[in-house]
Design brief:
Largest sheet: none
Structural class: mainly alpha
Oligomer: single chain
Shape: globular
Order of helices and strands: HHHHH
Helix content: 55-70%
Distance between the termini: 43 Å
Strand content: under 5%
């Protein structure tokens, strides 16, 4: 019998999740929490960068499940008007 390695749940990045919500809370343009924040992020990517992202993508960012890849991370920071280094470290 072969022992199987137990799978671990993905590590959640709570620090990123907190900073992302703080950046949104401080943005004069970002909607309030539960008032269309995820849709607004999706719309900004499409409007400013002609990039279509599914609604699930920012949902995972706000949950701390994933972080944006490098190109999107700079775009997200620009959308929110924050320093990318602060947002992602």
């Amino acid at each position: 019998m072969t022992a199987t390695k137990p799978t671990q749940p993905p590590t959640r990045d709570q620090g990123f999740r907190i900073r992302l919500n703080e950046a949104c809370d401080n943005s004069p343009f970002c909607p309030e929490l539960n008032q269309g924040r995820l849709s607004w992020i999706v719309q900004q990517f499409k409007l400013l960068y002609k990039e279509t992202i599914p609604l699930e993508t920012p949902r995972k960012w706000f949950a701390g499940d994933t972080k944006p890849r490098m190109d999107r991370s700079y775009r997200l920071a620009e959308i929110l008007g924050v320093d990318p280094t602060w947002l992602f470290t």
